[in-house]
Each structure stands twice: as C-alpha cells, then as structure tokens.
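Internal ticket - ligand job 445, adenosine-5'-diphosphate:
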Amino acid sequence: MEIIADGDASETLKPLVFRLHENAPAIIREVLLERGWTEFDQKEQDDTDWNLYWRNSPFPMTDHHSIKPWQRLNHYPEAVRITRKDYLARHLKRMKGAYGSTLYEFSPVAFIMPNDYVKFIAEYSRERQSVGRPSYWICKPVHLSRGRGILIFQDIKDLVYHCTVIVQKYISNPLLISGYKLDLRLYVCVTSFCPLTIYAYEEGLVRFATEKFDLSSLDNVYAHLTNTSINKYGASYKTYKEGIGCGCKWTFSKFRSYLRIFGVDDMLLWQKMNNIVILTLLAVTPLPEASNCFELFGFDILIDDKFKPWLLEVNYNPALCLDCSIDDTVKRKLLHDIVELLNYKQVDTHRQNEMPGSKAVRRQVSWRRTGQSTPEEAPGLLSGRKVSTCISASQTPPALQFARGSVKKVSALTRKTARAHPRKTLTSELREKMKHAKSILPSQN
Ligand code: ADP
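stdout (structure tokens):
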C-alpha cells in the first residue's frame, strides 16, 4: 500500500527509519523491515533522520541530550545500575534495610567479594552451626554473563575467585519438571522511570537444564545452570527428554497450562513475579532524567518447590538470538509488541516537517502496512495495547497493585503516565506508600 500525503498528492511520505549499532540483533532488523520501516543509511541520510536507534551498549549522554521529538533510544542512562550483579545486590540490600526483609526476601542472600568476605564467613559459620550442615552457595563473576565462570560449592575451601564476584545462597530446592531444573525469563519494558511505567510481557521463556538435577554433582553445569548458551552444547540438548521434549525451552503459556493441570494457581505466581519486578525497579529509581527512551530488561526468576519465585538477576540486552522455533515465536512477537508500545505514527509528519534539508533525494518508497500498525492511536504517546500488561506503580490504588489485562485500563493508564516530558514526582510518594505495602502485597512465600 502506498501512503500519500494529505496536502500534496505528489509527495511520497517518508517511511519510519531504524538505526542499528554494530552487533544489534538481526531479529530487530527483520521485525522492523516486516513492519515497513527502512534502515538508516549514514551516507545518504541526515544524522537525525531516524526514528529508533537500537544498540547493545549504553548511548553516550550526548545522544540523550540531542534527542529529537520523533526519536527513541532503546536504553536509559545508567540502567546498568540494576543489571550488574553486584550493583543489584547492593541496591536490594539497601531496600531490605529500609523497608524490611519480608518485602525484599525474594532475592537470595548475597555477598560481594572480596569486600564482604568477613560478613560472608560470619553467615557461613552461623548457618553451619544452626542447620548442622553447610548450605549451598553459588559464586558468579559480576562482569560475566551466560553462565560463564560460575561455581557452586558447599564447603568454603572450594571457593576460589580471581575477580569481583557475588556469592549468593544457592536455591537447592528448585521446582523440577521430570527431574529437570528450570528458570523463567520474564521480559519487562520500562517506558519511563519518572513516573515509573512498567510493562511485563505475558509470554516468555522457560529455560531448562538438560541433565537431571543432582546435588551430589555440583560441577555438572548441565544439571545446575539453565542458560541456553550452556545447555545447547549439552549431549542431551537435541534428544527427547521425558516430560520436557527436545531442546531446553518452553513458552510461559505451556508452563502455565502445565501448572494448572496440577492445580497450581499460575495467576498468583504471575502476581508475585510482577511484585518482584516493581520492587526491584523501585530500588534503582530515580534514574537520571531522560526522555524518549525505553529499556527492555530480562528478569531471571527461579521458582522453588514451594512455588516461591526468586530473583536471580536482571539482564541488560536480554538475548534476542534465535536458537530454536520457540525463541522465534516469543522474541519476534515481543519485538513487534514493543514497537506497538512505542506507538509510532504510521505517517511520520513530525520528522518530515522538521527536516526539510535532508541529504538524500527521497526515494519513492512503497510503505507496507502490516496488520499490526496502529495509525489511529493518539499521536506521540506511548500506548500499551493488548498483549502487554501495564504495571503503573504510581497510578493504581492501592499502591503497588497491578492493572491486569484490560485494554481499556492499560490505555487509560498509559495516557496518564506517558508524557513527552515526564513530571518530576512519584518516587518519594511511592516510597511512602511502600511503608504500608506489606499488608497489600500477596505473601512471597
Ligand atoms: P549469568 O549472568 O552468568 O547467566 P545468572 O545469575 O543468570 O548468571 O546464573 C546463571 C544460572 O545459574 C541461572 O540461570 C540459574 O540456572 C543458576 N543460578 C544462578 N543463581 C542461582 C541461585 N541463587 N540459586 C540457584 N540457581 C542459580
């Protein structure tokens, strides 16, 4: 379908333009091309002639300062405050101190080494005396990801590290399906930190270990770590595993159906996970003010055998590679929904009018309208629709509850909360409300 400008039928409108930094995942390009966008061409186009810039690393502050009204960046300044393991541990510890460990007991006790060495020894000895046998611990380098450099131990003599690490209580009673450990990758998109506006994606990935869980073999990464980057090299990855199937992934939908068969309240579990998301993001709010950006986080959550969810870590740039068909289904749809959430208008008159002198002579472009586009929605607003659930910590009475499901409610909330220039409000008010939150939140146990 070709879009023709209202005023001048001879003018061909500019399609929306995406800009990818080196190493940006290929699926971003695919999804945006599927939606009729075109890729930014540095040689042909003016430096500001794009609508969405996606990169894997933080943007320089100059990019935030020079942002134009028609543009979006896929990172907030300093989002790394929540995604580096030691920073997250520090923030959560501070929140535990300020608001009580009951509210923040969803994160396993953690020590940053070598700084917390003495405290760790004290805890290790105390547990050993009170429980009678040592607990299990997991040691993770703070700079690494994808399961690299991880060590699980019971006896302190096995603890060895050569860089800054966190030593975290190992959840030794995970929920198992047919004997296999699993964790959940929950996708969370923050469209504003001030006011805090969070969307939790209802679909997600369940990631399995590919060998049966066994506490007598702590060094078997295929039994204890659920990272796909590790398990896809396991001997059992491709084989059919009873109760799990081939590969190492399920969708949330499949997992939730599985839970319902066994009479587990999956909705309650979902609510608890959403609470974890809100409380974690509150721990790093406010971030420095920045407009026209959003952040996609990957929350890794482990469920124990009592159906208590535990936050393991928060990922910056959650992996968007496609290792299997389940990845394709979940991640492709996720990205389409994120673009929907950003609510670009189909006709980008803003950029068109503000940039008369672009370098390139406009090419005649046929702009394909996918079934997903929403030209009728309010211009310039971020709008949450259908699939995403908007969690607006500031708007829903009582505080820290969730707006669930309803399209109407989500849209109304979003119109209220998402502004081009967010108000400075909220966090102090939220913190006040959090003092009373214990009575509001469902128990994490
Ligand atoms: P990375 O960034 O290297 O992936 P994670 O913190 O996500 O580090 O840990 C990798 C994997 O190790 C997780 O997916 C999970 O299977 C396991 N794991 C991590 N922390 C714990 C813990 N405290 N208890 C039990 N398992 C854990």
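Auto-summary: The pocket of adenosine-5'-diphosphate is lined by residues 108, 138, 140, 144-148, 150, 168-171, 183, 225-227, 300, 302, 312-313 (CB under 6 Å). Residues 266-283 form the longest helix (18 residues).
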